[in-house]
Design brief:
252 residues; alpha+beta; Beta Polymerase, domain 2; 5-stranded mixed β-sheet
């Protein structure tokens, strides 16, 4: 290998490292936004709609294989144009309604651009797969320029995630035609997961309505206080007593 080839190899290594860093930074920025939304929602509503998140970056080898399948030319511009799921973020929610709530919250972020929405919940895939997919354009501020980086976001419930994860494990690297009876069972399992989602959402909604009804009758009247990042619930009557005591101390 001559000096020119060595230099070209070093330059390529530098360029691909910088290219992949952009996608990592985009994921970092998006995950930070999600954490802020989680904390805000918990504080305002005493409820967290997000169970957990998981991010991943495609490896350069996986990117090259997909680029070859798509017939794109070997350039960073071509990769960025043809492959929009280099960076991926999966958000797992408690209930189906939480999914659309999170979509709205992300859509309201002024620096994020929603490029595409694929709703496999309202329109499941033939095998029963359900999830909501977003393509988001995330701004990344490098030392010498701003880049708009595409991130694929998958939002699903715990039941949807359970089904999809096991479906992937069962059929991973199985390149033959799947027998129709197994496909039917797979679809039935997806339908069962969807039914469970609907049932749990109904239970959640009814419990919330009961809590609101009790609060309207003065039952369980509590207020939240925060001390050293710890949240405590105190009955209103106790807070009133504290206020009266403090007023009495001031009048002495």
């Amino acid at each position: 290998m001559n000096a020119l080839q060595v230099q070209q190899l070093k330059q390529f290594k530098h360029d691909i490292t910088r290219f992949m860093m952009m996608y990592k930074f985009a994921l970092d920025a998006l995950e930070t936004k999600i954490e802020i939304l989680k904390e805000e929602f918990q504080l305002l509503h005493d409820y967290n709609p997000i169970e957990h998140t998981k991010s991943r970056l495609k490896s350069p080898e996986s990117i090259m294989k997909k680029l070859m399948r798509k017939g794109g030319d070997f350039s960073f511009h071509s990769i960025k144009y043809h492959i929009q799921d280099i960076a991926g973020l999966r958000i797992t929610c408690s209930f189906r309604s939480d999914i659309y709530r999170i979509v709205d919250m992300l859509g309201n972020q002024r620096d994020l651009t929603v490029i595409q929405v694929k709703d496999y919940i309202k329109h499941p895939k033939p095998n029963g797969y359900q999830s909501l997919h977003l393509l988001l354009e995330v701004p990344v501020f490098m030392s010498d320029r701003e880049e708009r980086v595409c991130v694929e976001v998958q939002i699903r419930t715990i039941a949807m995630d359970f089904w999809a994860s096991l479906e992937h494990k069962i059929f991973y690297k199985y390149n033959e035609d799947v027998p129709s009876r197994l496909l039917l069972e797979l679809k039935e399992a997806a339908d069962s997961a969807a039914a469970l989602d609907r049932q749990m959402e109904r239970l959640h909604r009814e419990i919330e309505e009961l809590k609101e009804e009790r609060a309207g009758h003065g039952e369980d009247d509590v207020q939240q206080i925060v001390i050293n990042n710890q949240q405590f619930a105190l009955p209103s009557v106790l807070l009133e007593l504290i206020g009266e005591t403090a007023a009495g101390e001031r009048s002495k």
